[in-house]
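Tutorial handout. Part one gives the primary structure; part two gives the three-dimensional structure as tokens.
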Amino acid sequence: MKALVFHKFGGPEVLEYLEISDPVIGPDEILVSMKAIGLNFADIYRRKGNYHLTGNSPFILGYEGAGVVEKTGANVQGISVGDPVAFADVPHANAEKVAVPIEKAILIPESVSFDKAASVLLQGLTAHYLTKDSYAVKENDVILVHAAAGGVGQLLVQMAKLFGGRVIGLTSSKEKASVVKNSGGNQVFLYSDDWKRKVMEETKGKGVDVVYDSVGSTLEDSFAVTRIGGTVVFYGMAGGDPAPVDPRMLMDTSKTLTGGDLWNFLTSREERATRSAELFRWIEEGKITVSEPTVFTLRDGRKAHQFLESRKSTGKILLRP
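Part two.
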């Protein structure tokens, strides 16, 4: 099979499109012929060496995708050859075929395409736990979403609105601001503006109920615009590591800092099935809209990585085997 691999850490130029051996599945795995593969910032971090990788080179990136079951292991039940499946956390996805443990395989309903499943699963399940578990959004909550035009950001905006919240989005350009508006954002401010002042004016000096911060370096600013007794959910570091948080500040303001990591919530096959079923149902009912992805061939993986790193993308980037 063909796969996008690399032998050393570095920029997009280290990626190579090569012929390698097909995966050999175990008794509790299925072999999936890939139709669409999700590209995420985690792939960039792993390529650069910022995130830990196991095994030896050649390394294969990718953890998210969708395809058709080609073969099943001896112990597999409930999934058959020919079934459409997706996954959010299986390594070596940047290949024509992927060995997927049965507990991580998610059946795709007929109404959801491979592209849509690969576009929404990782980011959609992230937005799902953020709005239901890290901070359960309630009717009339005021929510501030960093990087609101990104893949997770757009879904966060829509889910917060679905639960009755009022959403303020932050983004980097007027073009991206229109994306946030189209996702249902009530108000959008640019990072280049005096956004902290504008958020406080927007909330009549009170501050927001919750901030979803995936930038990291903005954490201190996020607390500055959070109301007394409010919450900051820290779930990413796209802009660099945050400054240390003073626990005395938390005590004095009764504010809460909580972290978020999807893998602490997708702890079983049942969790995956329940959460993804709700996500897919919202899509089927039109409550959540998934923007059209930007698609590159797997062979052009370097170009896809360059595009993602350029910060010009809005929504999802897919690789097509």
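Part three, for discussion. The longest strand covers residues 29-39. DSSP finds nine helices and 16 strands in the chain.
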